[in-house]
Design brief:
With 370 residues, the protein is an alpha/beta fold. The protein contains twelve helices and ten strands. Helix 3 links the parallel strand 2 and strand 3. The radius of gyration is 21 Å and the shape is elongated.
């Protein structure tokens, strides 16, 4: 058996793996019905950790304050900001009774550690249901809290929401950020739907305060700079206690990075936490990325060699059709359907960037959260 024949059979196996993954995403999430039934409103504490976010707070806090929800408080954490974030928070606090300030001073042992600041904010909160959003995010509707809270019950202690990014026309970086965000959401929503939740995003997620303290909060990974959202979920989430919220009114929208350098630094921090996931999640996620990479490497190689070209093209087409259907239904559900037209290009671009980030993280560790 020649080398090209071996490569062809290896490619067929890789395509099969990819098809299985995307079909799993399709049936676990892509075809999942969106439930919008609201329930009785329970007291909520909205937790916002802000470090040098004065302008974002001025823009986004009014949108959170006008939520059609009672009762709720907003715990604003000033994480040792060097701008006028503290002054902005104090001004909001004087005008609104439901705002609570937590001013975190620089602590040498926890410098640059968002988890330390979040822990102080959680301790200061008054309610058992905690909803997390970043300072640079805005709710997609005035019913954001109502939709998120509707997923809680006696059994459900964690709710995973979707945090999207605002769109910018004619920007490759913006399209790439949104594509990666949807691809990631498709995976963590699918895994949660299949009974094996592994992460959430701090831009839009919620859990019960008692769950946090019963599991010792971030103590198990306090020394790791990133992972205040995904590592905690990976540690405590399971089939019984986790639900997802995917109604469009429950989304949050963030400002995306405007330069490749700052986005790459952000992704380096995010990706660096994956090695601390549970073994089963590391294996499944690693296999998915590896099969993505090998699909392109082997596919391009076999096309270049011209070996069994009809079968190679057929396998490539099969993988892309399944991927486009799965990703397309997800993108439609997450209100960004136009990205489907650029999927092959963005898919290849993202894989190359993820490989470069993986190599960079092997060479040096990413820095603190801001």
């Amino acid at each position: 058996m020649g080398l090209t024949t071996i490569l062809f059979f290896a490619f067929a196996v890789i395509v099969s793996i990819q098809v299985i993954y995307y079909l799993s995403f399709l049936f676990a999430f892509g075809t999942k019905q969106v439930e919008t039934r609201l329930k009785k409103q329970v007291p909520i504490s909205v937790i916002i950790c802000a470090k040098n976010e004065s302008e974002n707070l001025k823009q986004n806090l009014p949108l959170i304050l006008k939520q059609n929800y009672t009762p709720f408080e907003i715990v604003l954490i000033n994480d040792s900001s060097s701008d006028d974030t503290l002054e902005v928070i104090k001004e909001f606090e004087t005008k609104h009774d439901n705002i609570k300030l937590v001013d975190v001073k620089i602590a040498e042992a926890f410098w640059g550690n968002k988890k330390y600041a979040l822990t102080l904010g959680i301790k200061a909160s008054n309610h058992n249901v905690l909803v997390f959003i970043d300072a640079d995010c805005k709710p997609n509707s005035d019913n954001w809290l109502a939709h998120i809270s509707s997923k809680f019950s006696k059994q459900k202690d964690i709710v995973l929401g979707y945090g999207g990014y605002s769109k910018k026309a004619f920007s490759v970086l913006n399209a790439l950020i949104r594509f990666e965000t949807i691809l990631t959401a498709m995976q963590y929503f699918s895994y949660a739907s299949l009974g094996s939740p592994y992460m959430g995003v701090g831009r839009n997620m919620a859990y019960k305060k008692e769950l946090f303290f019963n599991n010792n909060g971030f103590n198990g990974h306090m020394s790791i700079k990133s992972g205040d959202d995904d590592l905690f979920v990976n540690e405590v989430a399971n089939k019984q206690n986790t639900d997802i919220c995917i109604s469009k009114e429950s989304f949050t929208i963030s400002k995306p990075k405007t330069s490749f350098k700052t986005w790459l630094l952000q992704k380096r921090r995010h990706i660096s936490t994956a090695k601390f996931y549970k073994l089963k999640h590391k294996l499944l996620l690693g296999l998915f990325y590896t099969s993505q990479l090998l699909f392109w490497v082997l596919g391009i190689t076999l096309v270049f060699l011209g070996f069994n070209l009809i079968w190679v093209v057929a396998l490539i087409a099969l993988r892309f059709i399944i991927q486009l259907i799965s990703f397309g239904l997800t993108a439609k559900k997450l209100d960004d359907i136009n990205l489907v037209y650029y999927t092959p290009f963005l898919d290849l671009f993202l894989i190359i960037i993820q490989l470069s980030i993986f190599i960079a993280n092997l060479i040096s560790k990413p820095k603190h959260w801001k």
